[in-house]
Amino acid sequence: LIEPLMGSHELVINGKRKTCRIDAISFQPEGLGAATRLRELKMQRSHQPVPSFAALDIGGGNCSVVGLNADGEVAGFAQTTPGVMTLYSDIATAIATRQGGIAPTDDAVRLGVELGTLKLGGYGAMDFQDLYATALPQSLQSRLSEIRAKAGGILDRAAVKVVCGGGANLPGLMAQLPDGFVKANNPQQLESQGLLEYAHRLADPLED
Length: 208
Description:
Low-confidence stretches: none
């Protein structure tokens, strides 16, 4: 995996050809980018001391949490599987049980959830709003329980707890979370933006 990534690469970004060079690769915990980006935004908007952060990243295949202390150093990390995709699968199974037939595809459920219609395929005749209302808190509490068991108090110690990742956009998600959690703006873009900033910091730690 690493060897093909090293060296120079020609990329086309927004129609413009660019050259990038990769000299070093470092593996970091998932969610680090989101936590780093949030901390940088806080520093840009306020002259007050930056508090400790915890980023709860709810993804399709897994859920993770990464904590940063007040100095921006990694305070802890934990990850659990599965992620949001198991919610879609549970709903599809419940639909099949209700109808006594073949389960719809997970993708058909996903479209309904992501579009906020809670209908199969996004605009189909089958409404699964009641099944979603039951499945979401069950799935979320299961993921949170596993994360808390593995995280060693990361969430409890953090002054700011932010939800990010694609799962942050699930309808009704924030109402199911304990008090103290906030949803990030552009939750799906934070990870890549923050990892770029973190990589820049590693490459030149003295640059402000």
